[in-house]
Records
---
Amino acid sequence: MPLLRQNFRHQLEQLIRELPHTPLLMLNGLAEGMDSEAAEIFLDVIRSDKERRGREVPRHQLVAALPKIPSDYRGDFQDPTALARMEDLLQCCDGILHPGNCADLRVAQLTAGNEQGLDPSACYGQQGIFLVRHCYLLFGFFDGVETRLVGGTSQTVSMQRGEIHPLFVSVDEVLANKEPGALVLHRTPRCKPGSPVNGAGDIQFWSPGEARNKVSRGEGLDLPQAMLTIPNRLESINKSLGWPGFEPTIYNPAEGPYTRLWSRADQRAGKNKRNYEHWCRVLVATGFILVLLAQLSPVAQGLWWALLLLAFLLFPRLQQGPKLEFISQRCLSECLTVQHLWIALDIDDDAADLFHSRSNSELGWIRTVLRAVRIQLLSFHSRKERIYSSAIGKAQIWIAGQIDFLTEKIKMFVALTQRWRAIAIVLAGSAVALATLESLPGSSGALAPWVVVLLAGFASALAYSNLIGYAETADRYKRSLRQFERGQTALVVTASDEDEEPVTTRTRQRIVIEALGREKLDELNDWVAGQLQRVYAPGA
């Protein structure tokens, strides 16, 4: 036990040292044995961190994830000392999640006539699913014996590695939706006959992206850097949230400031969109200027071909970075809005499950962030009651704001599409007119280069409009506008029905917001797929 405690403490201290701006959030079942040991070590480590850094320390949290409601869970403790230890830990938790307040911890399918409390293996199995779904970094204290029992440590470890035994039920969806996670195994003998004692204290690491069943042993106790790729990305986000002068965005005074994370994502999305549009303009303008120079000065022909070759190699990279960052930050901000409203209205859906990032591995970190945010929101509401009127009021403000925003943007994008189309038509018509004059008897041939220049301008106008995607964006916004208008109408209908009971009205309002959120995420998925397929082709 002293060796296990020392090793685990060392790794927690490494996380705090290498991620100084990132709060650690431990999900723990507080079971007798290593669960309780790990929770106590975690509390001691974060207490020391707070004493050392004072106000600079991020808000680390211990969140209990119990397989049963607390009153039933206490019955699983036979040892009064272990039960008292668990009760003390519950008092130290920042949040307590259990089947009574968290749908993800409820057993999905029960045998007819049986209550959940009569099926402990299913309860513990569901707890393992919950942990694997929401934990990026899973610490397992395991003797390495495959028990093939539902609800055991071996099941949770297998799921984190992306493996599952046929006896384990209700996990296919978990593995399909789960992002690659990291696993740290501390070899821990069990207090039962047959548990191997050799190698006690050995540590094994599974890093994300490694081949199935591939195990790497660290040179020491430190977590390999391959495990910290996503945590390091979260660290950069958390660090920027604390920069002086950073202020959350206020969209509507009635709704108040958005979270700092949403504000950062929204601001960075806008910045990278402007950068992307800048490179598109540079690309099109440069191409047009090169054509002009090549036609007016034969000396520029060599320069034209050299720069064209450079465009094949350079422009895609300059353009792709801001584009992908714009897509990822916009996705994060949109998903966060839906997730916050769903949690505030006690809607069980998970935005991370419905955001399909599989088409591009670069977007997988978004789902990791969404799951972490969701746990923090669930933890917060486990100790503070939801105010339904406030939540539905914010949802109504969101819908009204989206309708106003989309209506204005649709008008702008339609006008821009028509403008660039008109410019292209004028340039093409001018080229045809000059070509006609050039074909007349007695023409000197001086107009021929200008015909090419005007055709290049025609192509450039169409290329810029298509590259920015004004028409496609307008069509996407029209689809979204119809969704929000239907949602607004539905909320008005539910609120005006005086014959309905308040509970029924709230249920219908939740259904409306859930449907709107799902449609928003569906539209977001379609947009991402379309944007990722839009590839810059200099040859065209």
---
Amino acid sequence: MSTRREFMQSLPAIGTAFALSGRLVFDETSARAQERDMLPPLDGHFHPKGKAPSRFTLEVLNRARIELPFSDTQDFEEQQKGLIAPMEEMTIAADAGHVAWDMNRFKFLDQEAEFDSIHPSLHRISRLNNNYGLYEVIPGIYQVRGFDLSNITFVRGRTGWIVFDPLVTAETARASWKLFQDHKGENLPISAVIYSHTHGDHWGGVRGILDEDDVRSGKVPVIAPVDFMNFTVSENVYAGNAMNRRLFYQYGLLLTAAPHGYVGQGLGQAISAGATGLIAPTRLVSEPIEEFDVDGVRMIFQNTPNTEAPREMNTYLPDLKALWMAENVIASLHNIYTLRGAQVRDPLAWSKYIAEALYRFGLEADVMFASHHWPRWGNQRVQDVLRAQRDLYANMNNQVLHLANQGVTISNIHNVYEVPKGLQDKWYCRGYHGSPQHNSRGVIQRYLGFWDCNPATLIPLSPEDSAPLYVEMMGGSERILVRGRELHDAGNYLLAVEIVNKLVQAEPHNASAKDLLADIFEQIGYQQENPGLRNSFLAAAYELRSGIPKGEAADSSSPDVIRAMSTELFLNFLGIRMDSRKAEGMRFAINLQTPDNRETFIVELENATLTNIKGFQSENADLTLTINRSDLEQTMMGRKTLEQQIADGTAKVRGDVDVLKQLASAMVDFDPRFEIMPGTKATSADLASADPYEALPGKAMVE
């Protein structure tokens, strides 16, 4: 059943058909703008309004080629080491009939010749991420890489294979398992699964390799860090709709994989588009350091909460001298602040957990491997990478705060803070996922919040309210367009953004202004080493040129994730979905009882606010609703309305049933493609409304 929440993975990666559907007639405000729009499309660009890199962009990229340490090729040697079998099929089919994974899209990156529209460092990591096959880490440990955003790892146990982090979707995990079995699996079964942390690219494919009956029977343990289920769901629910929309920018979901568009995600090439699932862990690692055998393999688990994920753990295999660093150490600077939106991470704690791993395990480890990128071999190499990554996060925390204590604010820290030169020269400290620019602002946000301490920015007008005054004071739209084009033509792109963005905010339907801002964003995007920054600028350019497209519904929210929501989390989310303006004057109390799991709640609407408290019942409730939690899940998933459940007797009610109608009337549907850039909103909605009590957490976030 397709529901409204299932929209978010539905839009095609290639928007060419949308873009080429016809040229709109615009009201031009200058002869120069008319002349510009008459230029033929750039050959090889996926969008008819796409522009070539300017000479200023070429200068930025050429400077990077000169200044960065391209003579250091150790990453390429390590990336190629241990190849057992390349994957011959370039596509992996989804169970639903479409393509879940397509490596053909990224073949263009294999050429060593440099592109004039891709930062050379970004091209380098994208070439490295084009590994696609089965690799030996050491005898007894194998990885399938390049099938998804993350890696899947197989460790030989006494009776079978222990799996670390089974990718994003069932189809890519299943294909990985088949390739592995064809060459190294010995027809042995899976004997355990370990989820390193809460992000969806580390558990979403589990149903492609594991039968839940084997888990429930105790045959196959599923191991994860403590509080795994709570944080897996809660991180994606409360602001899930906003996060999913922002993913369009960070992950460039509308961009064609091409030299002028999407060129990878840094962590890996992309996210697979198959079916996600979740099997709940059966054993949680709760102690800071905890040791036990997994199918005969001795493992030491190191819990690292509030680092790369709210709950995450590293694992050391002492008898193999192999250190699994999950996603805490990868071949990149990671996100302290992630562009999709999430709670800002603690870089100092992150640094200290890496230091602990170094001194507990790293002084003897012979190999270090992780859920992204490729392993590092040799104890000295392991130590070097751990020390540099430790210093990377510690320096960012300490030096940003050093500057903040001298008055540098969130508004300018990204222009002042620099990663030390010694770390910049290490490829695995470059900003392929996080960037120094947005991470430094994240540190300020973590400690001091959003305000730069200038009262002028304390209660700012909304951009659409302030922008008309700017346009008026600058002499009107035509003068801004002329000056903006001058700044663009001079390569002063950030200055051009300052004034042209104001015009677009003031006049969202000014096609010339949107086209010019798109041209500016495109040049800034080409110049970025960081994929998230590149994608964000290019995605904004795409939407300014073409608007927000529509798409067919496709499943993006696994029923497993809905079922994993606690009842309290679900009730909290209803409080977020409720529009207080529609609830003014309403007042009632509901007793909720779920007999099958023996939970009780008081749900109260008062002061236009919906609250709940677990473990209590009101003596004066307006309504008592009794429904098994297993039946409530049918409503949460949008499969059966609460009204139907009451009508057929599945749910029992006592009291005033009309209060449920009152509550439903105050619920709103979150638009999964809300407008980010002005003037890009689709003109009509074509998605069915959700049930008032349907949970809409969206797709579990990858990272």
